[in-house]
Amino acid sequence: MTIFNYDPRLVKTKNSYPKGPNDWKRFFSFNTDAKVIGIQYIVTALFFLLIGGLLGMLIRGELITPPSDLFDPTVYNGLYTMHGTIMLFLFLFPILSGLTNLLVPPMIGAPDMAFPKLNALAFWLVPIFSIILLLSFFVPGGPASSGWWSYPPISIQNPLGKIINGEMLWIIAISLSGISSIIGAVNFVTTIIRMRAPGMGFFKMPIFIWTVLAAQLLQLLGLPALTGGAIMLFFDLTFGTSFFRVEGGGDPVLFQHFFWFYSHPAVYVMVLPVFGIFSELFPVYSRKPLFGYKFVAVASFGITILSLVVWVHHMFYTGTPMWMRNLFMFTTMLIAVPTGVKVFAWIATLWGGNIRLSTPMLFCLGGLFNFIFGGITGVMLATVPVDIHVGNTYFVVAHFHYIIFNTIAFGIFAAIYHWFPKFTGKMFYEGLGKVHFALTFIGATLNWLPLHWAGLLGMPRRVASYDPEFAIWNVLASIGAFILGVASIPFILNMVSSWVRGKSAPPNPWKAIGLEWLLPSPPPHENFEEDIPTVLNEPYCYGLDKPFVEDEQFYIEKSLKKI
Amino acid sequence: MLTENQNLSLNHKPGHIKHDGHNMTGFIIFLCSESIIFFAFFVGYSVLKISAPVWYPTGINGIDIKMPLINTVILVSSSFVIYFAEKYLHKKNLWGFRIIWFITMMMGSYFVYGQYVEWSELTFSLQVFFQVAQVLVMV
Ligand code: HEM
Ligand SMILES: [Cu+2]
Predict the structure, then answer these.
(1) Which of A170, A555, B70, B122 could lock onto A144 through a cystine, CB 3.0 to 4.6 A?
(2) Is B1 within the bounds of a domain?
(3) pLDDT reported for residue A21
(4) Same domain, yes or no: B30 and B79
């Protein structure tokens, strides 16, 4: 298990199977190269961001006026269910798997992932379950419409009595997504544990690697509970069992436990890598070492452990006994401690730094600001008396969009810009990037900030019509949503045109410290090939006179020879 | 830098061990994760059983314990038997392996037969068969 007897040269044996073509066609093949798979994941996920965003804008279109005039309320139920499901399972999880695939092997000096074929399998499951999910729009009765959490009894009603219905396809898609995630998690954890470069002990790993490890362990521990719940739900729906059916002696709240036992950790599976991205980028763009590296690293595992024991905060108002509420209120508040350690470390890193406001840094700063805001509303929601009042209102919607879009998606955009030159070999257009940031920040704030007020005034979520007193907040939110839609234009333009005809990127355009920046842009097929560097010091020694790897000059010259 | 020759010789022995090492690590991680799915089923079973005012369907007072018990013993012990089969295989004792392997297979078959008997003797069931028929009609 130790890293020191690991000789990465030996991994070459495993790469004897065919790689697939070497031109653009490789992105459409069963390619086993983690860098190709990473880009496959990211592009697929961004496509579903557009679809999910379109559904979101349809929802906001309906909500711009109080009565339900655009859609039938049943159609509306399907819209928000599919919006949430697509955004989580077809956009966020795949795009984070993509970034992880791109970044983990180069960052730890490995040539590829531990199980390349399984890696490709995990990716190709994504289009399969995506198509299954999208097909549910066309079955009689329409798509699943019981919300992304699919609570029984609504989810097992099956009004048309058809075997193949939207809810059933939803369960199948979610289970396949779970299989894909588990394959990915086994792969990432094995790679990180066994394939680090010589000298890279745990406390010399970049924080991104720490957070990926913490997030993927969470995936391994939590996801099977949801799969188990989904199997029982499938049986209830299709075979008439009564795990969750009250008439047959079942217990619908049991499903809520299975669901949230995974789905609360799931939000941390998504946010942890973004914490990693923040920790990578702040030092680069403020030219300072990361403040409290060891604490930030270990805090990731604090979050992993605590987030396994807070799930009932999503069930405060569904008949949960008082002792349970108090217990889980306490654990939920505790999670603010490791999270606070990280926020403190980032701010201390920025403090007095030589800050460069480039596009990735802007997204990071915006994301951090929004995370602090969303964290505060989170602690409010964790307080049982507050939650009893605002649970199931737009306050919750505002809270989690502040986290999920305004923090996680911001961090993802930051990462895409930051590592774009490394993996495409092209520089992006800084001006377009800034326009993208400005539109995204304005749109996102306008979209979700006003909804806090609507929620505090008592506007319930998941209803197509509402009381006219909430109109002003909804008009603002809808305008914000449409601005967000427009924001995708400079982004797509930037990505496509700079990849096609952008300026060639040098190996290390941001003067960053990290193994991936010692490679040419784009890195060769097996990253460092035979010359795996030996890591000497912890990362982020900006401004300190500590070499990162042995013989650094050799790697810099080797990477430059490519241009 | 390695020469071609060294590379090859390196690839041979330790390379193979390393490869197995990855597989073993991955497999252990996967097993730990998969055990949670069963944990979920057991939790579900206990919660439902504890909170149920009446556990059996009306008219049923209990189910046979003896047959499932025998079945369980056979199933669990077959994993020890197959362990010995593997030992013989490693010792290259082919006939020993074949015989014990055959015994394992017999135990497995008996288990499947026992399951069949158990389920067919139940006097209550789901409407599964009706539903499956419905699917077949649709397809
Ligand atoms: C900083 C600590 C956080 C605390 C204390 C917190 C607390 C809470 C609480 C108590 C709820 C339940 C509200 C209700 O349903 O009435 C909630 C909902 C939610 N939170 Fe957080 N949260 C935090 C951070 C996060 C993070 C980091 C994420 C995502 C990565 C997140 C995503 C969500 C989601 C998706 C929901 C709503 C799920 C739904 O009802 O559909 N939260 N949060
Ligand atoms: Cu939660």
Answers:
(1) A170
(2) no
(3) 56
(4) no
Question: What is the residue range of B35's domain?
Answer: 6-57
CA angle A247, A253, A254 (to 5 degrees): 95
pLDDT classification of A3: cutoffs 50, 70, 90: very low
Considering chain A, what percentage of its residues have pLDDT values greater than 70? 96
Please check whether residue B104 lies inside any domain of the structure: yes
Average pLDDT, chain A: 90
Looking at the DSSP assignment, which residues form a beta bridge with residue A85?
none
Indicate the number of domains in chain B: 2
Are both B84 and B108 inside the same structural domain? yes
> Does residue B134 carry a pLDDT above 80?
no
B66, B94: one domain: yes
Q: Which two tokens stand for residue A324?
A: 């349970």
Closest of B60, B71, B65, B62 to residue B111, by C-alpha: B71
Confirm if A123 and A40 have CB atoms less than 8 A apart: yes
Q: Whose structure tokens read 């206990």?
A: B46
Neighbours of ion ligand 2 (CB under 5 A): A 264
ipTM, two decimals? 0.84
Pair (B35, B75) in one structural domain: no
Residue A5 has pLDDT above 60, yes or no: no
Res. A69 pLDDT band, cuts 50 70 90:
confident
Ligand 1 atom with least separation from CA of A382: 10
Does residue B3 carry a pLDDT above 60? no
Q: Which of A115, A228, A530 is opposite residue B26, by nearest beta carbon?
A: A115
Q: Are residues B76 and B52 in the same domain?
A: no
Residue in chain A closest to B129 (alpha carbons) equals A239
pTM: 0.89
Map out the domains of chain A as residue ranges: 362-494, 502-563
Please determine, for residue A562, whether its predicted confidence score (pLDDT) is greater than 80.
Answer: no
The angle formed by the CA atoms of residues A96, A97 and A103, to the nearest 5 degrees, is 85
Each residue of A302-312: pLDDT tens digit?
999 999 999 99
CA-to-CA dists, residue A499 to A323, A480, A522, angstroms: 56, 29, 12
Q: Which of A260, A304, A395, A396 to mutate to test the pocket of ligand 1 (most atoms within 8 A of CB)?
A: A396
Mapping DSSP to helix (H, G, I), strand (E, B) and coil, where does residue A310 land? coil
Is residue A465 within 8 A of residue A67, CB to CB? The reply is yes
Long-range contacts of A545-548 (CB under 8 A, 24+ apart): A548/A513, A548/A514
Cβ within 8 Å, pair B29-A7: no
In a domain, B128, yes or no: no
Half-sphere exposure of A200 (CA within 13 A, CB side): 29
Q: How many CB atoms lie within 10 A of CB A380?
A: 15
> pLDDT, tens digit, for every residue of A293-330?
999 999 999 999 999 999 999 999 887 888 989 999 99
Looking at the fold, whether B40 and B68 belong to one and the same domain comes out as no
| Closest CA to ligand 1's atom 42 | A400
| Domain C-terminal end among B39, B57, B75 | B57
A334 pLDDT more than 50 = yes
Which residues of A fall below an 8 Å CB-CB distance to B? 1, 6-7, 9-14, 114-115, 163-164, 182, 185-187, 189-190, 193-194, 220-225, 227-229, 232, 238-241, 243, 249-251, 254, 258, 261, 530-531
Q: Do B76 and B25 share a structural domain?
A: no
Taking CA atoms, A141 is separated from A157, A163, A460, in Å, by 12, 11, 25
Shared domain check, B53 and B66: no
B40 within some domain: yes
DSSP readout, A78-117?
Answer: HHHHHHHHIIIIIIIHHHHHHHHHHHHHHHHT-SS-S-HH
Q: Are A313 and A328 in contact (CB under 8 A)?
A: yes
